[in-house]
Structures are given as structure tokens and as C-alpha cells.
């Protein structure tokens, strides 16, 4: 009432229309709040303590006489304002008594009993099916109730500017909370620091609000103007005045969209009235008088009686990092336009005081994980109905032979470009597939069939059609998966659904077929029956995003809202599962076993199985950051980048002092070519742990991939603190002479030096390559200090190599070997063994690449040290025929032994083949290499060495230059393209874990790790034996997902 009186006696009220609000009905309140909660609000005499706590009616939201009447007026005022906006009779409606943004579906919280904001937004959305609402909240406390209400909605964008700090109510509102499901990137939180001033707040506000409005294109804006941001507020810590709040409202007003203004927090009544009155006056181009006019509330404005509010709190300058905004806004691809009419309206504030109480602890306001507070009104929109009618009409035209008319009808319906998952897009692609089949265009028809099956893997019509129009290789793989899924669905029973093993099996197949509706529904139902409503809603939402009218899913969602415990499953006619049964939670020992089995699954390369187990563990281990980090790793390995980032963010939120999740977020971003953002996360990881070897490597590697070579070199100079070991100045590092000396030093650091004479090597570097060491022991000290940073040294070596004008590393290695190698280094072998080579031949995607593969094979045939070449051909007709025709033309054809294999050559296949052939091959060294590798005369080196015993030799490759016709060597300890071993070198366990193709990313370093795990000695003779790489064409046959996942290890060069 103070605001109303101040406006009245200041002469502002005459410029406004004052409208008495209607009381909200109980039915109105039930649009969001549960009936049981509303009944609790009616109990004004107070509830028993336990029941009062259940509904949040304690502490700062205690019961009071007239509470229920108050709730009806607060909600009614905001609903009246919303109705006025919808009537288009006004363009601004104000209810300074509203803005109760903490109230939940069935709980009071933070002085808020009914959420009038949610009710008003719900009304706006219901009046127009295409309407969208932007909710802006500038209260110092996060609007948690509003965020939860619309977290899954694509039609409401919630934007909150607030304080987020440990112990500050309500403890929510992190910038990582961006919405889920259809509401992904429709929620944006902007945490701000204490003491922020008018100018600083406006700078951030304009920076964010304008692009959000431009991208989201709302129909209406609802703005909550809590004034606990004022400098004088007893519970606030910001430093705003009424001027700053007014500025923000004026920014929003300039968008010329229908605007609903609501109040909110504000715990100094006089200053709240001052601020609300100042904003109201500005909206009608008026100003408040300098002094508060004489009226009934005048004494409460003492002692200065001014209408102004001064900033009094100090603030250290601090710019917020807002790079997340660009990522969020990039996902908005919507547009909307509307006309604007000028008019204003003011709703009279409810005559009730502000209630101030003790703020509850975070534990009291934290929502129980099994409680569901999100109202989603699932329904089939008019657009959905129209799309279905288009489908029926188009298919009817097609069946009657009017193919062009059918195509035109489909073109008039919704857009299915991009990663569209709607039910309409399934139907559209299926009709197009049948249309192209009738036109005899099988390849195009198969493309559309694949699109249907990508979205709906059990689509019967598409499965049948795929047998006609798609290649057999595609059909056989899909059919096997379909049969397994169908058997799983057919086996669904009450007993099985209660077991964790059955849930895991459904999660496993959903990982492989992430858009299979029956699987998604059943997984949601199984989480539903276990009381894990958040997980249930996640999977139900996935179904409804694909098929908005899916009846079983809609029924299950409705049972969530009504707290029913009867989820419906896809098969077996199950309509009630456990109305009289309580399922036991996952026992601690079962949870431990689940995690152990995850490790076992990863060791066998079964990432989908690992994902299923991790998801179950996460459901019952929600506060374990390591678990979420591992979940993110598996999601990343499967190419689910957004899910990976979400898991890593969760891990980081649970334990901010872990560097690993931050490093992993950056790795995902780098994979997505978001290098600048990735650098920021790598930097954050190093701030948490400055000695984290992985983060050091990744940051330098990212700089190198961005072609910031000089920055890479300077970064490692600083991070290794090289000034402690070398008499160089940082400014001299990039000079040519210095770079040549650094290249020699880094090349030496990539050598195997554990038992070497570092004093001798340091002397060579100092006298021959002008490396200025600080002391006689500098090299040894540097090695000891950087023992675990071999990956970073490798990146620095690549950066120096890319400069293109540094000394050839071969000179360094030759001089070091000559001066410092053991005198007993070379023991001659009399019975020189034969070398048998295993290589795969394949058909390349370009002529240039095919020429390189063919040339490598010809050169190996001509190598006198290779006695036999075992060519393993993949079992495809084109490969077999082409190689048969090509091999007949080769001189030395008799050296070849052709073996047909079922798939691309893996290390396991190669090792198994060696074991099978061992009984026929005595005194033999086996070589395995990629198809584009050939050997020269240096292969004699290995033939003259002592016999290999429990030892594998790896060969870092040399590079052939097509322009210079020369081969050159640059040390890389992360890539070995050829391997030498004997038949007795490997234990059986190595074969089990090495079942991945040669040439995959990380395949070499992964194999090194496997071998050393099982005590097989691995040495790198890449400098002595030249495995020469022929690959200057741009063709690449792998992607990021063609990766050998698991532990890996770099392998230093053996020169001494």
C-alpha cells in the first residue's frame, strides 16, 4: 500500500489506469500447485509440525491468519494483469505485489506461498498456441521456483540475474543450469558479485538481454523487479539504487513488447516503495518529487524523507566472464514479429505487509530428488494435428500415383532439416522412401529409410523396405540389432522389470539406438517405479520430443503429476506394477559391483555396456564426482558430446577442486572446434592444479592446432620454468639460432634416458648445439623435474618442427649416439632371422591415396630383408577383385600370401595370425605395419641384433617427401606405425585387449600401455630402423570416433 500511496500523493497516479484485481479461484491455483498443498494453505490455524515442514510452511514461510485470502489476491492480481495484456487493451501491466518466484508446486519457500509468475505465464501461453514468454528476474535471489516450472519448456525462456554464494538463499542458479529436453538452452542464469553498482549491472544486463530477445523473439515479457538489490536492503549485498532498476526496465520497454511488471523481494518497506514508485513514474515519462509528499506513511520515510536512494556499499572492480552467452544464443533459431500499441495500466497492490523471517539453511530449501516440481502441459498442438493431416493426404496421393502432388504436399508441412526427431519427420521420410522406390531410385530411397530407422529403429514398414532398397551389409547389421531389441521388449515382465539387470539391458540397447521409442518409454517406467522421477521424466521427455501424442508416455507423465505409482510399459500389457510393492534401492555392495563391472566393460571395449552401468550407478550415487567424470568420458567416447559436457559439469560442481572434469570439458570443446572456449577451461584446470600433466599437454596441443606455434613454445617455456636450467632469456626464444638449439634439447628429452650418462649428453648439447645450461647437472635436474610430462615435450617438439627452419634432429641423435652410447651396444648375430611382414590392403577413397598404398606394397616386395608378405584382405568383393587384378602385375608376386579376413585388420587378428603360423616359421621376426608403410635397407639392423625375448620393438615412422624425394625423421613418441616381434613375445591377455584396428587414433599408444601392463618389454628403434610413411594425399579414412579408447602410454626413442 505504501507504493500506491506514494504514487497517489506524488501526482503520478493520474497518468495511470488503476484496476482492482480479481481474486484467483482455487481452480486457477491448481493450474500449477497441487490440491494437497492448496488445502494446506487453507489451514490457517496451523498444521502439525511434520506436515507443515512437508509443505514448507515453516521458518520464512510460516502460516498466518488470512494467508489463504492473501494467496488468492497475489495470484489474482498477476492473472488479471496477464488477461489485460492478452486483451491488447494495454501494453504494460504492473502488479508490484506479485513476483513470488520461490514458491514450488507443493511447497512454500522464501516468503512465497503461491507462484503468481508461473500462473501468469501459463495463462499467456494458453491464450495463443504459438506464444512465447521471456521471464526476466532481477531479484538478488535466484528465481528457483520459476526456473523449475519451465525447465523443460521450449516456449518459456527464464533469465535470472542474482547472487550465487555458499549459504546464500536459495543456493541455486548456477550458469551451468541451461534447461533440459525441449527447454535446452532456454534457461540462463547470470550470477553477479557483491557490491555491483547501477552502471555495472546495466552493462551486464544490456549485454545479455538484447541478444536473448533478438534470438528468442518472445511474444510477451514478464519481469520480476525484486528490490532487495538496493544498496539499503538489510538482506541484500548489491549496491543498486532506484536509478539502476529503472534503467533495466527502460531497456526492456524499448523492445515494445507486451510487458508484465511484478515486484519481488525488498526488505526495507520504505525503499521498496521509493523504487517501485520511481520505476512506475519513469514508465509514464514522469519523475517523483525530490521529497516524499505529506501523507499517512510519511514517518516511515525518515529521517531524510528523500525519494532518492543512494549507493553506499563499496565494491572491488570485477568483470564477470560471460562467454557462455554466445554458446547459449547460438542454439536459438526462432523468429517472431508482432505489432505494438501504446497504453499503460497499474494494478492496485494488495494491502498486506512484507513478511521477514529467519532464512532457512540450504538443506531445508533443497528439493528432495524424488519430488517433481515441474508443470508441463503435454498436449498435441494444432501444428501437430495439421502435420498428421498432411501426412495422410500425401500418402493418399502417392498411393494413387500422384507422386509430384504428394511431394508438394509434404513440402507444405513442417521443416525436417537438421537433427529433427518429430513423429511427423518419421512419416515424411517413410513416404519419401516409398515414393523414390516406386521411381526406381533405390539409393535415394535407402537414404530416407535410414533416416526413419535412425529416429525410430523398430519402424516395421521401414525395416521391410530396407530389405528391398538398401545394401545387404546395412540390412544385416540393423536386423541383428532389431531382433535383439524386439526380444528384449517381448520379454518384459513384472518380475524382470524389478531387477537392475533388466534395467541395465534396456539402457545398453538405448545407448546403441538412442531414439527407440519403446526402449525409452520402458526405461522411463522402470525409473518411475523406483521413485527416481527426475530420470523417469528425462526419458519420457525424449519420447514426447519424437512423438508428442504418444499415448502410453502421456499417461505415465500424468501419473507423475498426480503422484501415482502406476507406470505403463510398452509390452506385456502391464498397467500396474507395484501398487502394493516397494522396491528396494540398489544395495551398497551392488553399487560397488556395478562400478567394478564398468571397468571390466571398458577394458573389453564395450562402451555401451559401461554407459548402462554408469547410468545406474549415477542414479544412486548422485554426489560422486568421480562417477560423473567417468560417465562423461564414456559419453565422449561414444560421440555424445552434449551429454559428456553435462556430466563433466556435474562432476565439477560436486567437487570444484578437481582439475580433471574441467580438462575434459575443454577436450570436448576442442573436439567441436571451439578452441577459444576450450583454452579457458584448460586454464581453469591449471588454476586448480598447476601441475596437472594432462591439462598442460592439452593446452599446448590446442594452441598448436590453432597454428599459434610461437604461443605454444612460450607456454612451455613458462610452464616448465626453463629459465632455472638454461641461460636464455624469454625474448630470445623465437630467434632462429635459439630455436635450433631448443630443437636439439627437446629431441634429446624424447629419448629413453633412464640409465644413460646425462653428463655426457649435456656436454654434447652444450658444445655441438650451443645449449647454454645453468650448471653441470642441469639436464639431469630437468629430466627429473619433468619426468611425467613426456606428452608436453612431444607437443613442443611438433611445434618446433612446424617452424620448418630448425636443424635436422638426425644430426643431434647421431652425435649423441656416437659420443655417449655404450661400447657394448652392438652385438652381432650370426643366424640372421627371416622377416615376415603382415599388412592389410584396402581400396582407398581417392586415386592419389591408392597410388601411395600400392607403392608401399611394391617397395616392400622389393626389400631383400623381407622374406614373405602376408596380405590380409577385408572380405569385400571389390577389394578381392581389385587386388587380384593388381597383384598379377607385380614383380615378385610369389612373395605374397593372400589371406581373407572378415573385417579391417586389428592387432588381435594380426597377433592371432602370428600364433597360428608360428609352427611353420622358425627363426622368424614378424613385422606388422599400416598399409602406407615401407621399409628400406635399415631393416637389416633388427636382423643383426640378439634374439627378441618377451620383447616388442616399436618403430616411430620416417616421412617421405614427394617434392624432395628424401626421407626425414622427427621425434614423435605418440605414433608408431610398425611393430616387430616374435611368435612367443605375447601373452594371451594382450590379444583379448588389442581388438581394435591398426591406424586408429591412439592405437599405437594404447598398444604400448597394454603390452607394459602384461610385463612385455617395449622399445622404440624408430631411429635405427626406418619405417617410411607414404601419405601426402589429404585423404583420411577415420574420424574422431575411430579411436582406440583406454589407458595409453608414450614410448621414448631408444638411441643410446
From TrEMBL:
Q: Does the keyword Hydrolase apply?
A: yes
Recorded hits in InterPro entries, A to Z, give:
HDAC_I/II, HDACs, His_deacetylse_dom, His_deacetylse_dom_sf, TPR-like_helical_dom_sf, TPR_rpt, Ureohydrolase_dom_sf
State the GO CC annotations.
histone deacetylase complex
GO terms in the biological process aspect are: epigenetic regulation of gene expression
Q: Name one GO molecular function term.
A: histone deacetylase activity, hydrolytic mechanism
For this protein, the Enzyme Commission number is 3.5.1.98
Q: Does the keyword Hydrolase apply?
A: yes
- Give the UniProt keywords, A-Z: Chromatin regulator, Hydrolase, TPR repeat
Pfam families on file: Hist_deacetyl, TPR_16
Where do the TPR repeats start and stop? 625-658, 659-692
Q: Which domain of life is it from?
A: Eukaryota
Q: What class of enzyme is it?
A: hydrolase
Q: Where is the Histone deacetylase domain?
A: 4-283
Record family assignment: Belongs to the histone deacetylase family. HD type 1 subfamily.
Q: What is this protein called?
A: histone deacetylase
Amino acid at each position: 500500500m505504501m507504493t500506491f500511496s506514494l504514487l497517489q500523493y506524488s501526482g503520478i497516479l493520474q497518468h495511470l489506469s488503476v484496476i482492482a484485481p480479481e481474486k484467483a479461484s482455487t481452480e486457477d491455483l491448481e493450474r500449477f500447485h497441487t490440491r494437497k498443498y492448496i488445502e494446506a494453505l487453507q489451514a490457517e490455524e496451523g498444521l502439525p509440525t511434520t506436515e507443515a515442514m512437508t509443505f514448507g510452511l515453516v521458518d520464512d514461510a510460516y502460516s498466518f491468519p488470512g494467508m489463504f485470502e492473501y494467496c488468492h489476491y497475489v495470484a489474482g492480481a498477476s492473472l488479471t494483469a496477464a488477461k489485460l495484456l492478452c486483451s491488447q487493451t494495454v501494453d504494460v501491466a504492473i502488479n508490484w505485489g506479485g513476483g513470488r518466484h520461490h514458491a514450488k508446486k507443493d511447497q512454500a519457500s522464501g516468503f512465497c506461498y503461491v507462484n503468481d509468475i508461473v500462473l501468469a505465464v501459463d495463462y499467456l501461453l494458453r491464450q495463443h498456441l504459438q506464444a512465447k514468454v521471456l521471464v526476466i528476474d532481477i531479484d538478488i535471489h535466484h528465481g528457483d521456483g520459476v526456473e523449475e516450472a519451465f525447465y523443460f519448456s521450449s516456449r518459456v525462456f527464464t533469465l535470472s540475474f542474482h547472487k550465487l554464494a555458499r549459504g546464500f538463499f536459495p543456493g541455486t542458479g548456477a550458469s551451468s543450469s541451461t534447461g533440459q529436453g525441449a527447454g535446452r538452452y532456454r534457461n540462463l542464469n547470470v550470477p553477479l558479485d557483491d557490491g555491483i553498482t547501477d552502471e555495472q549491472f546495466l552493462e551486464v544486463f544490456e549485454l545479455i538481454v538484447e541478444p536473448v530477445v533478438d534470438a528468442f523473439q518472445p511474444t510477451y515479457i514478464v519481469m520480476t523487479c525484486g528490490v532487495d538489490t538496493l544498496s539499503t536492503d538489510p538482506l541484500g549485498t548489491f549496491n543498486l539504487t532506484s536509478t539502476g532498476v529503472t534503467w533495466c526496465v527502460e531497456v526492456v520497454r524499448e523492445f515494445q513488447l507486451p510487458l508484465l511488471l511484478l515486484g519481488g523481494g525488498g526488505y526495507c518497506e520504505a525503499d521498496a516503495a521509493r523504487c517501485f514508485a520511481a520505476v512506475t513514474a519513469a514508465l509514464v515519462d514522469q519523475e517523483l518529487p525530490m521529497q516524499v509528499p505529506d501523507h499517512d506513511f510519511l514517518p516511515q520515510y525518515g529521517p531524510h524523507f528523500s525519494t532518492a536512494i543512494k549507493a553506499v556499499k563499496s565494491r572491488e572492480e570485477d568483470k564477470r566472464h560471460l562467454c557462455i552467452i554466445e554458446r547459449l544464443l547460438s542454439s536459438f533459431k526462432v523468429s517472431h514479429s508482432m505489432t505494438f500499441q501504446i497504453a499503460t495500466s497499474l494494478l492496485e497492490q494488495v494491502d498486506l505487509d512484507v513478511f521477514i523471517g529467519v532464512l532457512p539453511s540450504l538443506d531445508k530449501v533443497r528439493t528432495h530428488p524424488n519430488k517433481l516440481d515441474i508443470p508441463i502441459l503435454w498436449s498435441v498442438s494444432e501444428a501437430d494435428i495439421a502435420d498428421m493431416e498432411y501426412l495422410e493426404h500425401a500418402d493418399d496421393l502417392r498411393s494413387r500415383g500422384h507422386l509430384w502432388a504428394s511431394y508438394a504436399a509434404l513440402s507444405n508441412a513442417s521443416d525436417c532439416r537438421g537433427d529433427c526427431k518429430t513423429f511427423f519427420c518419421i512419416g515424411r521420410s517413410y513416404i519419401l522412401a516409398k515414393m523414390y522406390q516406386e521411381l526406381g531410385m533405390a539409393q535415394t530411397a535407402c537414404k530416407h529409410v535410414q533416416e526413419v530407422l535412425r529416429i525410430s529403429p523398430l519402424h516395421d514398414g521401414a525395416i521391410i523396405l530396407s530389405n528391398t532398397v538398401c545394401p545387404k551389409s546395412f540390412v544385416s547389421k540393423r536386423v541383428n540389432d532389431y531382433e535383439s531389441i524386439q526380444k528384449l521388449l517381448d520379454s518384459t515382465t513384472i518380475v524382470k522389470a524389478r531387477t537392475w539387470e533388466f534395467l541395465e539391458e534396456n539402457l545398453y540397447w538405448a545407448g546403441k539406438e538412442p531414439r527407440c521409442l519403446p526402449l525409452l518409454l520402458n526405461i522411463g517406467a522402470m525409473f518411475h517405479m523406483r521413485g527416481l522421477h527426475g530420470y523417469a521424466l528425462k526419458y519420457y521427455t525424449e519420447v514426447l520430443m519424437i512423438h508428442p501424442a504418444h499415448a502410453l508416455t502421456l499417461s505415465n507423465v500424468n501419473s507423475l503429476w498426480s503422484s501415482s505409482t502406476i507406470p505403463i510399459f510398452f509390452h506385456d500389457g502391464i498397467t500396474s506394477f507395484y501398487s502394493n510393492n516397494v522396491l528396494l534401492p540398489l544395495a551398497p555392495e551392488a553399487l560397488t559391483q556395478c562400478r567394478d563391472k564398468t571397468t571390466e566393460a571398458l577394458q573389453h571395449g564395450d562402451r555401451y555396456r559401461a554407459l548402462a552401468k554408469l547410468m545406474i550407478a549415477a542414479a544412486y550415487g548422485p554426489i560422486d564426482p568421480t562417477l560423473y567424470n567417468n560417465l562423461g568420458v564414456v559419453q565422449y567416447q561414444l560421440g555424445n558430446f552434449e551429454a559428456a559436457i553435462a556430466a563433466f559439469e556435474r562432476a565439477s560442481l560436486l567437487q570444484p577442486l578437481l582439475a580433471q572434469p574441467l580438462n575434459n570439458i575443454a577436450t570436448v570443446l576442442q573436439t567441436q572446434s571451439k578452441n577459444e572456449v576450450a583454452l579457458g577451461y584448460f586454464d581453469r584446470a591449471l588454476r586448480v592444479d598447476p601441475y596437472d600433466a594432462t591439462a598442460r599437454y592439452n593446452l599446448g596441443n590446442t594452441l598448436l592446432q590453432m597454428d599459434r606455434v610461437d604461443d605454444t613454445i612460450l607456454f612451455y617455456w613458462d610452464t616448465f620454468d626453463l629459465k632455472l636450467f638454461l641461460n636464455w632469456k624469454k625474448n630470445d626464444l623465437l630467434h632462429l639460432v635459439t630455436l635450433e638449439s631448443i630443437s636439439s634439447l627437446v629431441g634429446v628429452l624424447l629419448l629413453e634416458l633412464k640409465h644413460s650418462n646425462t653428463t655426457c649428453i649435456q656436454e654434447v648439447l652444450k658444445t655441438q648445439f650451443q645449449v647454454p645450461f645453468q650448471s653441470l647437472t642441469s639436464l639431469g635436474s630437468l629430466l627429473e623435474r619433468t619426468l611425467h610430462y613426456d606428452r608436453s615435450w612431444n607437443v613442443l617438439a611438433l611445434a618446433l618442427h612446424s617452424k620448418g627452419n630448425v636443424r635436422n634432429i638426425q644430426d643431434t641423435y647421431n652425435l649423441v649416439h656416437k659420443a655417449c652410447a655404450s661400447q657394448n651396444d652392438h652385438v652381432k648375430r650370426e643366424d640372421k632371422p627371416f622377416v615376415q611382414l603382415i599388412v592389410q590392403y584396402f581400396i582407398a577413397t581417392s586415386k592419389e591415396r591408392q597410388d601411395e598404398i600400392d607403392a608401399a606394397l611394391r617397395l616392400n616386395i622389393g626389400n631383400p630383408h623381407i622374406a614373405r608378405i602376408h596380405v590380409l584382405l577385408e572380405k569385400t568383393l571389390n577389394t578381392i577383385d581389385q587386388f587380384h587384378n593388381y597383384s598379377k602385375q607385380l614383380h615378385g608376386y610369389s612373395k605374397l600370401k593372400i589371406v581373407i579376413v572378415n573385417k579391417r585388420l586389428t592387432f588381435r587378428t594380426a597377433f592371432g595370425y602370428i600364433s597360428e603360423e608360428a609352427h611353420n616359421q622358425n627363426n622368424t621376426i614378424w613385422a606388422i605395419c599400416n598399409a602406407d608403410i615401407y621399409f628400406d635397407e635399415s631393416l637389416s639392423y633388427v636382423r643383426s641384433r640378439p634374439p627378441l625375448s618377451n620383447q616388442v620393438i616399436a618403430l616411430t615412422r620416417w616421412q617421405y617427401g614427394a617434392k624432395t624425394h628424401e626421407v626425414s625423421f622427427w621425434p614423435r613418441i605418440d605414433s608408431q606405425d610398425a611393430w616387430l616381434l616374435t611368435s612367443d613375445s605375447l601373452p594371451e591377455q594382450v590379444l583379448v585387449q588389442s581388438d581394435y584396428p591398426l591406424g586408429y587414433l591412439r592405437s599405437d599408444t594404447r598398444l604400448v600401455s597394454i603390452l607394459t601392463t602384461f610385463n612385455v618389454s617395449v622399445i622404440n628403434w624408430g631411429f635405427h630402423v626406418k619405417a617410411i610413411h607414404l601419405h601426402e594425399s589429404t585423404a583420411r579414412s577415420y574420424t574422431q570416433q575411430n579411436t582406440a579408447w583406454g589407458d595409453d602410454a608414450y614410448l621414448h626413442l631408444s638411441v643410446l
